[in-house]
Amino acid sequence: MGSENTVEEQGTDTPGARSLRLGVAGPVGTGKSSVIAALCRALSEEMRIGVVTNDIYTDEDARFLKAEGVLPEERIRAVETGACPHTAIRDDVTMNLLAVEDLEQDFAPLDIVLVESGGDNLTATFSPSLVDAQLFVLDVAGGGDVARKGGPGIGRADLVVVNKVDLADHVGVDVPQMVDDATRAREGAPVLALSGKRWGTVEQLCEWVRGLHRRHLSGTHVPTDPGPMAPHFHADEEGGYLHSHV
Ligand SMILES: Nc1nc2c(ncn2[C@@H]2O[C@H](COP(=O)(O)OP(=O)(O)OP(=O)(O)O)[C@@H](O)[C@H]2O)c(=O)[nH]1
Fold this sequence. Notes:
Elements: H1 7-10, E1 20-25, H2 32-43, E2 49-55, H3 60-68, E3 76-80, H4 85-91, H5 94-106, E4 112-116, E5 133-139, H6 152-156, E6 159-163, H7 168-171, H8 175-185, E7 191-193, H9 199-218, E8 232-235, E9 241-245
Parallel strand pairs: 1-4, 1-5, 2-3, 2-4, 5-6, 6-7
Antiparallel strand pairs: 8-9
Helix pairs in contact: 2-3, 2-9
The protein binds guanosine-5'-triphosphate.
Pfam family, one: cobW
GO biological process, one term: urea catabolic process
GO cellular component, one term: cytoplasm
């Protein structure tokens, strides 16, 4: 699957000359790291993969992926954002972009770099200046109604993943209904029901990634911006104004 030439040989104007950069966003605990681990396990024989994780204060997610042994450790880089997760994937992507470019340079040529956002709310999305495409991960344990709540990630990410469907019976969620609701909120754009415990669903996700990578290589994938998060501001510890996202 990997392209044969180095980035230098291809030139930066060649479609797909650098890796496909794929963002993985979604609320806290929906399974973003697990989705990345599953993709690395399933695709690392056929694709050259790098991973950048984001945590606010730690390198927890990178340590999880290293412990899982899904990739050589040096291909997993942690960015400590030090601020709310959406800041580093949307407002000022510098730290993440540097980490992605370092990986691409150190292991050239890579086929795909997966960038995991820190867990955030339903309105957090990646800037198209950081990633070429993005997944938005929900899980059934967050409640079946979440898919109807919309927002830029659910509405316009390249793919919405409804994760942990193996838990649906335990939490009383009707998976086909949740997928239908998400599909309606996305006006027909793709939604995938996934469980790390069900190989067939992981293979469906891999097939989606392979298709995206093919379109990236041929230059037919056009990155789209799901749009900014809802305007809001952050207060300091005394409740005063700190900064805003408008
Ligand atoms: N049953 C089940 N559990 C899952 C699945 N995917 C992830 N989990 C569990 O869900 C929990 C959270 O998974 P993570 O992958 O750490 O979630 P995350 O979105 O990366 O979490 P943050 O980075 O903290 O936002 C862990 O206990 C996982 O083992 C799944 O498909 N089925």
